[in-house]
Amino acid sequence: MLRRSPQVGSSSRFFRAATLFAFSSSIAAAGFIGTGVASAAPVTCVSPPSANDIQVDGTASCGATALDTARASASATDSGTAVSVAESAGNTSTLATGYGTALGASRAGGTAYAGALGGGIAHSWADNGGTTIAIAGWGSGATAEAAGVDCVGQWSLALNLASGQFCAFGS
Description:
seven-stranded mixed beta sheet, mainly beta
């Protein structure tokens, strides 16, 4: 179920988004420090230049596919799985660590970011020039898309900068 936050003024929306992003960065840093899992060499997938870049090293895996003038990148370490898909001038970046799963997609000039740290599941979808951000830590999930945002668990954050929707900490 997607939760929608009420619409607010654009300057207030920007301030809230910036504040949450800054706060989530500190949570992400704590996630990197406290994650102790199986070790695998980092893998990074980028498209273009490859139309469909898939890499696996030990237990870490990534995939990136971009069409037209789009760009997709995915990075994974420590049993993480990251997948990025983009088309029609979209830009997608994903990162997964420690059994995390990060899924991102964009099109029509949208920008999507998804980060799954230490076992979280993050999903981000951006369309029509919008920007979405989903970050999830251990045991948590975050979804950010045009239809709304959803956070499950105490280490979750989701933002839709086009609509001003956001959620954090399972709220």
